[in-house]
Amino acid sequence: MNTISISRRQFARLLGAGAAVAAVRPALSLAVTPPTTPVTPPAAGATVVRLSSNENPYGPSTKALKSMTDAFGIACRYPDAQAEALVEALAKLNGVSGDQILLGDGSSEILKLCAVTFTGAMTNEKPAGRGNLVAADPTFEAILAYAKVRGAETVKVPLNASFGHDLAKMGAAAKEGLVYICNPNNPTASITPKNELRDFIEKTPRETMILVDEAYFHYADSADYESVIPLIKDHPNLLVARTFSKIFGMAGLRCGYCVAQKETIERMRPHQMWDSVNVMALVAAKSNLEDPDQLANGRRWNSEARSFVIGELDKMGHKQIPSQANFIMFDLKRPVVPVIKALKERNVQVGRLFPALPNHMRLTIGKKAEMEAFLAAFRQVMA
Ligand SMILES: Cc1ncc(COP(=O)(O)O)c(C=O)c1O
Fold first, then answer.
1. What pTM does this model have?
2. 73, 74, 88, 363 — which has fewest CB within 10 A?
């Protein structure tokens, strides 16, 4: 039977996947807010298993939740004092001064500001300090879209055989402008080794800006991985983006930040909207930083659920790219799009198509019960 084309009703009669999705419901209702994005067609009373956006299903720390409740009384005020307090905490955490931190409405705003500030159309009148955007393929695509809106040329350089960034080719393709390095990389969950990245940063001319997106920094534990924030002091063309959307569980609250030299931040700031981060996100982010359990639990729970699903996929013969993040990418050995669709019909959402790897699926690591629900539906679809 072609399980991809079976109807919802037929599917409901099948044992296994249906039962597994139902089994995940109580766990979800305890700590996960039901997703607001409806799946088509939504089954009455069905719960969506959302493994599509690399979110942390456990959410922010209880301290962060409390500080948001406490902040209701200041919701009528502009968030200057809370922004200042978070900047101060982030500066201390990263060993830099406050004027080297720029907060963003999620790290998406930082990516956009980088595209706006450092990329632009390659004409004779090209404003100084702007040029093309060079990014890997596949990578997190948002910045490519932002640079295109600027009229900038965008260059995609395929990842190398180990799914790291091909830094030599990326450097050669750069025309001033901006090189975007996502490390660990979304969607492959792979890393670019620290020595290669350090070397690239050393060699790159100062006219070319380098943005290292460390959204998944906290999940990476390879000896070959490191943050490049300590290199910023010697490199005016280096920027690092971080987010509270991943291990800090605040994707819906929207808070991220950039670390760079003061002069670099000053080039970006005029392009930013005033007060772009709201007071709830600011107080939650600060409390999250102060709760040591948030990182330890996030890493442990991710690693346990990831090992579980990897073990099951191994048994099914689906080889994964070694993961240093809260998601995995694995080879389906068939086009991913119909499988994404068939899973969605079973209320399981997984990552979108990444055209450079059309037979690979990106799967976010959720709670164990969610991974069980995924596996049950996946087995049905692949049978
Ligand atoms: C690598 C990477 N960077 C940035 C973002 C944007 O995250 P946010 O705007 O929520 O901080 C994402 C979101 O998935 C991502 O994967």
1. 0.89
2. 73
Q: Would the pLDDT of 8 be above 70?
A: no
Q: Which residue would you say has higher pLDDT here, 285 or 11? A: 285
Mean of pLDDT values over 193-207: 97
Residue-level length of the chain: 383
Residues 56 and 167 grouped into a single domain: no
Of residues 129 and 330, more confidence is placed in: 330
- Shared domain for 316 and 363, answered yes or no, is yes
* Residues 86 and 132 reside in one and the same domain: yes
- State the residue range of the domain holding 316: 3-60+293-382
Residue to mutate, 51, 52, 107, 244, ligand 1, most ligand atoms under 8 Å from C-beta: 107
Q: Which of 67, 53, 97 is nearest to 243 (CA)?
A: 53
Which of 30, 79, 58 has its CA nearest to residue 286?
79
Among 290, 317, 349, residue at a domain's last position: 290
Residues 302, 270 within the same domain: no
Ligand 1 interacting residues, C-beta cut-off 6 A: 54, 106-108, 140, 182, 186, 213, 215, 243, 245, 251, 256
54 and 154 inside one domain: no
What does the alpha-carbon distance between residue 72 and residue 57 come to, in Å, rounded to a whole number? 24
User: Do 300 and 175 fall within a single domain?
Assistant: no
Q: Is 54 left (phi over 0), alpha (psi -120 to 50) or beta?
A: left
